[in-house]
Every structure is written in structure tokens, then in C-alpha cells.
Amino acid sequence: MFFFNSSIRVSDSGLLQGYKDYHSHLLPGVDDGVQKFAVTMDILNLMQQHGVKEILFTPHVMEDMPNTPEKLSELFDTLDFGDCDIKISLAAENMLDAFFSLDRAKRLPLMKESILVETSYFTPPYNLHGILDDIMSAGIYPVLAHPCRYEYMEERDYEKLHEKRIRFQLNLPALGGLYGARVQKKAMWLLSHGYYDITGTDTHSLKQYKSFLDSKLSRKCVKQLEELISK
Asked: Is this prediction's pTM over 0.90?
């Protein structure tokens, strides 16, 4: 019992050894994430020190940040990551709002035939399930970013989405309580029910990433994450 009730800092847990981070905002100057490339490199160097092997940059694409695949790719291609050993790829986090375009989203996929999508934290878009159905009918799998952070969703909402085979992406900092106790509780529920498919840190700043490394997880949680990450 002591083993499962004790906790360990993320930086000491070994979870980041060989880790692939599917969600980050490290492409500089395009959204509410990192603004300067020097900070991007500081974060990548810290990630490398802790064993991270691969990361996807997933800048926002939404009404308030109307990024395009062309502009994002153009900027990404200009960046020189020097001797960083982390494999770095470009995708996008697509808000399901009036600006959303499946044709555009498909051009920066998260994985083969998958796109990362999100909604407002407080209210769903009109006809959320219809939008997700349309995406899937086009042969694309929507991966819902950080579902534990959506205030309007409760357990039955997650169950319905899971039944539709919507994929879920876990923000690891949620498990350490960095978004608050309610979000942490929901993240733990989703993890314990096996609803998560992939994970990421959703890193927006160096300070945030350091807070994540310093946060603590129960050893039981670490065990569950090891199984998820190794899939």
C-alpha cells in the first residue's frame, strides 16, 4: 500500500525517457505559446535533458489566431534547432469554431489520418457530435485535446465520445494538479477508465514546463501512465 500511496516528482519518475510529446506550443510567435525562438530552444534543451525523444509543435488554428498551414510551415522550415537530438515535427491544434476547415486541418495532421481538435473550455460548439461525425466520415480521426479541461463535459459526455471512437489526448500536467483539483479529478477518472490514447504536455512557456517537472504524481498514476505511453 505504501508504494501506491506515495508520490514522486515528474522529473524523477522516468516517464520522460524516450517520451513523445504530441502537444506543445513551441513554434515561436504564432499563438499564446512561446514568443521567442531562444525560449523554444531553452525548453527543448530541458526536455532533452529529461529524455524526451520526439515532439510535435501544435500551434493554435482558430478565429482569434487564424494561422494557415502555409505560414506555419514556412516559419517552421526557417528554424535551425542546432544539435538538439529531439525529433521535431509540425502539426496543429484546431479549434472547432467558425474558422475550422477540415481541408485545412488535414494539411497539418497529428498522425496519419488524425487531426488534433479542441473546443472552448466553457461551451461546446453548435452540433459538436455532428462536426465530429463529419470529420470521421471523411476518413479522419479527430483527437480531442485535453478533454479533462472542458467544464461543460461530465462523465456521460466522455462515455458518449468514447463510444463514438473519438480519441482523447491527455495533458500530463493535469494529473499533477496544475490546472486545479477539478481538472485533476477528471483527468484521473479518464485515465483510470482507459479513455486516453496519447499524451502531451501542452507546453506554452519555460516556467510552465519547469512547474510540470516539479509537480508530483502518485506512483499508481505513474504506473498507469507507463502503460499508456508505451502503447
From this structure: yes
